[in-house]
Write a structure and sequence with these properties.
There is one protein chain. This protein is mainly beta and 79 residues long. It has one domain (2-72): Beta-grasp domain (Ubiquitin-like (UB roll)), CATH 3.10.20. The chain contains 1 helix and 5 strands; from the N terminus they run E-E-H-E-E-E. The chain has a 5-stranded mixed sheet, covered by helices on one side.
Amino acid sequence: MSILIRFLPDDVSVEAEVGEPLLQVADRAGLTIPTGCLMGSCHACEVEVEGGDTICACITAVPSGQPQLTINLFVDSSW
């Protein structure tokens, strides 16, 4: 099952499979999400999903149960 992932602020969309790692989806879309520890501890890969929640992209997969997901790639100036 696939869903449409929309990345902001560049407004890039790509189809992704449920369970696919978000870092892999972003890479396939030609986007880079900064990473640090790759374990979710450092929060370098933190992104905002629609609704305002933040997640660590390095430990998050494409969720099921929705046809589309919007992810805002913001940059933490301290990294």
